[in-house]
Write a structure and sequence with these properties.
about 170 residues; two-stranded antiparallel sheet; AN1-type domain-containing protein; repeat; Znf-C2H2_ZFAND2A/B; zinc ion binding; zinc-finger; mainly alpha; two-stranded antiparallel ribbon
Length: about 170
């Protein structure tokens, strides 16, 4: 026996279930069964009016207000970080100015150009570079000699120790 005057049918697409305790969606006013009462379950077109979530900025832990009703939380937080976030001083990405005097270009990494030098300055620079290279070469040569001397003396000391111990044994045996 069926009671057609009792209950109502679910208005969700493909359901049409007769429910004796139907519920009314508070956003779209549709009559729904217990399986489709959530906004996502019946694809509620008016859920934005009731399903309001206030995002929190991950950097400064402040609540981020929406700029308009249908804005996504990600976009609201992103806009907040770009404009209003007071978590820390934001460093400029393109803070390095080009080293050429007439250039106004900014770069992410410092770029240094070698400017043309006068012949006298260039010759002085070459002489300084040559003297530095010679001093470095001499230092390396001296270090190599010192290492060879140490290796030679340590090898000779080891050989002398083994020879003297052999001589001592032969003396003791006689």
């Amino acid at each position: 026996m069926e009671f057609p005057q009792l209950g109502q049918h679910c208005s969700a697409k493909g359901c049409n279930k007769l429910d004796f305790l139907p519920m009314k969606c508070d956003a779209c006013s549709a009559i729904l069964c217990k399986d489709h009462i959530k906004y996502d379950e019946h694809q509620c077109s008016s859920s934005y009016r009731k399903n309001v979530q206030i995002p929190v900025c991950p950097l400064c832990n402040q609540h981020v207000p929406y700029e308009y009703r249908d804005q996504s939380p990600d976009r609201a937080v992103s806009a907040h970080i770009d404009r209003d976030c007071r978590s820390r001083k934001r460093e400029k990405v393109y803070a390095n100015k080009c080293s050429v005097a007439s250039c106004k270009q900014r770069e992410a990494i410092p770029v240094n150009y070698f400017q043309h030098q006068s012949p006298a300055k260039q010759k002085k620079q070459e002489e300084d570079d040559y003297a530095l290279a010679k001093a470095l070469q001499e230092s390396e040569r001296q270090e190599l000699q010192r290492i060879r001397r140490n290796q030679t003396t340590s090898t000779a000391a080891t050989a002398n120790t083994s020879t003297s111990s052999t001589d001592n044994r032969s003396c003791c045996v006689q």
